Amino acid sequence: MATVEDGARWVAAMRANDHAAAWALSDAVLKARDPATRDDPCLPYHLRWVWDGRAFDGRDCLVRCYHGLGDTVQFARFLPLLARRAASVVVEAPARLLGLLQRIAPAANVRFLPFDVVHPLPPSECDIEITELAFALRATPADAPWPYLSTPRAILPHGTVGLCYAAGDWDGARGVPPALFAPLCACSRCITLVPQATGLPVLNPRGCPFDMDATAALVAACDLVITVDTLIAHLAGAMGRPTWLLLKADPDWRWPVDSDATPWYPSMHIHAQRTAGDWREVMADVARDLGAFTLSPAASKAP
Questions:
Q1: DSSP label at 189?
Q2: What is the DSSP string of 110-156?
Q3: Each residue of 215-271: pLDDT tens digit?
Q4: What is the pTM of this model?
Q5: Domain coverage including residue 67
Q6: Boundary of a domain, candidates 110, 143, 176
Q7: Position 240 in a domain
Q8: Contacts of 299 (CB under 8 A, 6+ apart)
Q9: Are 48 and 101 found together in one domain?
Q10: pLDDT digits (tens, 9 = 90+) for 151-198
């Protein structure tokens, strides 16, 4: 079983882009696990482990998506790599994401089925949770083509900036008070990418549609996306859209703490808190940079 120290070392390795060190730690954890606890129905889905180390080459594989929508989009980049090696792949994913995932891995031997939390699919020859794919395949972000998601674009005015300030219930500290986005709306044409009405002066004050394909189309049409750490960040990054990611001082394991760039999404620029809880300083930096960005002839390119 992994210790707290092992977990901290793994996070440090991933943040440093040292995948070999992270995989060595994961190998040790996997070796020490009790096989009887695999995909344990007594645990919440997001706390389960699925892959037991068995080979998947030439086998029928079932990819289970037990984590959040953003996690699923982030690790879906590895599905084509798995499809090249497995006999067949079934991806059991949230129904809301199926249309987008089919665009990421359209191979003939890959099928996508909706995940029913009450009646999950029976085991296959080899089961893997989607966030385990990088470890199982020994693949880094650089091993998968990027951008890896394309979708039809909505019709938006040139220069539109997409804003997302809500991070959901998983970690409220990731969210930014909406009022801090008001200065951005004053200097740029903006839309909200949050599925709820807003008082910000945006083109769509009633909010973004609660529909993944429609949301992705809006993201694809934005010249720039400014977002907190949530699904929108992964959608924009997967599509290669210029993206400014707003991070709390101690972010999730996938983001670096000493860099404004990430290998997961090369078109992404990170604006992180320098003081825990202080979003005002972050948003002041963003407002300053946005003025220069929108005035630049290279406004459609990443910073």
A1: -
A2: EEEEE--SSSPPPP-SEEEEGGGHHHHHT--GGGS-SS----PPP--
A3: 999 999 999 999 999 999 999 999 999 999 999 999 999 999 989 999 999 999 999
A4: 0.94
A5: 39-143
A6: 143
A7: yes
A8: 159, 223, 224, 293
A9: yes
A10: 999 999 999 999 999 997 778 899 999 999 999 999 899 999 999 999
